[in-house]
Every structure is written in C-alpha cells, then in structure tokens.
C-alpha cells in the first residue's frame, strides 16, 4: 500500500467558490515529482522545512514562509531527508487573478508573473491561515471576503502584469510538441511520431523540450493528464472514467501516476468534493 494512505491531508474545492482550491497536509515526509499547475499557487509552511526547486534554484522554506509559484511553471517542494513538514497550498484560477489585476491596472492584463518567490510576512501569513480555516469550516462567504483582502494587495505588490522574459518556449519544435501532446491526451503521439513530424531525432526533442520547459515531454504529458483528471474528479466523474478520459491505459497506471504527482490517491482527492460539497 502506498504511504500516501497514511498522510494526514485534506482538499477543499466547491462550486460556491470555483476559482479557489486548497490543500492542507500535516506532518508528511512524502515527496513529489516536478510538476506544474494551471493556477497561480501560493504555499504556506506551517511546520518543518521544505526544499523547493523552482526557476532553476533550490530554496529552503521554513515555518512562517510563503511561496508564490506562477501558473504552468515546473517546480517541486520536498521535505528534508528523514524529516516531515506541514503546509497549505492555495490554487487560484489564473483567469480570475488576471481579471483582478486588469481591474486595478485599468487595462487588460494577459499574463501574470510574480517578482517575489518567497516571502516572510507575519500579517499576510496570518490572513492566509484564516482563509484556510474558513474554507475547511465551510464558511464560504467569510472565506471569499478574506481572499479578497489577501489577494488584492498581494497581486499589486508582488506580481507584475508583465510576462517574464520568455513566457513561451523559444523553439518552434517545443511549441509543436506541447500542442500535439495537449491536443489528444487519450491518444497522444509517441516520440517516434513527433520525431518524424519534425524530422529530428527523439533525443533532440527530449533535450530541447527539457531545455525550454524544465521537464521531459513524457513528464509534461503525465502532468497534463493529471491536471485534466483532477478537473474531472472535482466535477464528480467516476474514478474509472476519469482515468480513461485522461489517457491512462488502466486504473493501476492512473493511480500510480496520480500519487507520484500529487502525493494523494485519486480517491483521496475526489473525497474533497464529497466532503465539502455537502456544507
């Protein structure tokens, strides 16, 4: 049995606040593969330390630290060897964040880039903690008010409406591979097929893709499939159907990859919906 079955963790998501998702994990020594999220992510360390690989650097986060992770940016945050950490993650819909920035800037903002990666701000951290408590108590109206008080100054002070220097992969080959993989998650083209389409060697595709994105094409595909599956599970799609629609050949493979990228089973993730939709 995977060790994630013994991890003390909880998810929150609800149609009452569709632009928000949260995850809380306590005293876990479980690690993650490098992955990314479509949402803007804000993490908070409650106990212990974690090593975060992000933007080509390794940062050590301690209790009281916040971390901001741009949408679609590869990262991994793992505990120190032999130690555990407790943390919360807040995932905010990117379109919602861009709308908030646009309203404040007075012009359409199409990209989001956080200039600050880690922050130690006791007042902001306390507000973040209050939001998490309200979410898990089902106090949606209060949570929405706290979220607005948290996110507006945060976006204005620490995030930029300007994109980073290269928001998209520089190489046409990498763009082609991304588009082809995302266009059909159920029957994604093989590396051999992509190599033939681009008239290059498979090794060249992998090397260039990793250089442009920080991960391999297979890791990118698995991550995309897991993010798609999470959306299906949030909307009540049965586990077997979610795995199949996301491109996994069987439930065992789906379970294995889901755990590897989320440190939770598909059933544990879906339980967040069944618990909190009833509040």
Automatic annotation (TrEMBL):
PROSITE patterns: HTH_ARAC_FAMILY_1, HTH_ARAC_FAMILY_2. Keywords: Activator, DNA-binding, Transcription, Transcription regulation. It holds the Pfam family AraC_binding. It comes from the Bacteria. GO terms for molecular function: DNA-binding transcription factor activity; sequence-specific DNA binding. Residues 175-272 form the HTH araC/xylS-type domain. The keyword Nucleotide-binding does not apply. This is AraC family transcriptional regulator.
């Amino acid at each position: 049995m995977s060790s994630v079955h013994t991890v003390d963790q909880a998810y929150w998501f609800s149609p009452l606040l569709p632009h928000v998702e949260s995850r809380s994990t306590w005293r876990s020594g479980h690690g993650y593969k490098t992955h990314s999220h479509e949402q803007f992510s804000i993490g908070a360390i409650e106990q212990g330390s974690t090593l975060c690989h992000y933007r080509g650097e390794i940062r050590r986060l301690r209790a009281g630290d916040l971390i901001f992770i741009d949408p679609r940016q590869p990262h991994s945050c793992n505990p120190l060897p032999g130690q555990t950490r407790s943390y919360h993650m807040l995932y905010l819909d990117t379109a919602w964040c861009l709308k908030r920035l646009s309203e404040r800037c007075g012009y359409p903002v199409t990209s989001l880039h956080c200039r600050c990666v880690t922050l130690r701000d006791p007042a902001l951290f306390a507000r973040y903690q209050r939001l998490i408590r309200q979410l898990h108590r089902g106090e949606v109206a209060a949570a929405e008010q706290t979220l607005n008080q948290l996110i507006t100054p945060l976006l204005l002070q620490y995030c930029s409406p300007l994109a980073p220097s290269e928001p998209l992969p520089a190489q046409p080959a990498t763009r082609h591979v991304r588009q082809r993989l995302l266009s059909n998650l159920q029957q994604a083209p093989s590396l051999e097929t992509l190599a033939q389409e681009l008239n290059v060697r498979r090794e060249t595709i992998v090397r260039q893709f990793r250089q442009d994105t920080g991960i391999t094409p297979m890791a990118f595909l698995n991550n995309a499939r897991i993010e798609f599956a999470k959306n299906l599970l949030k909307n009540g799609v049965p586990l077997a159907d979610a795995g199949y629609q996301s491109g996994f050949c069987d439930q065992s493979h789906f379970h294995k990859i889901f755990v590897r990228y989320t440190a939770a089973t598909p059933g544990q993730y879906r339980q967040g919906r069944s618990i909190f939709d009833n509040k």
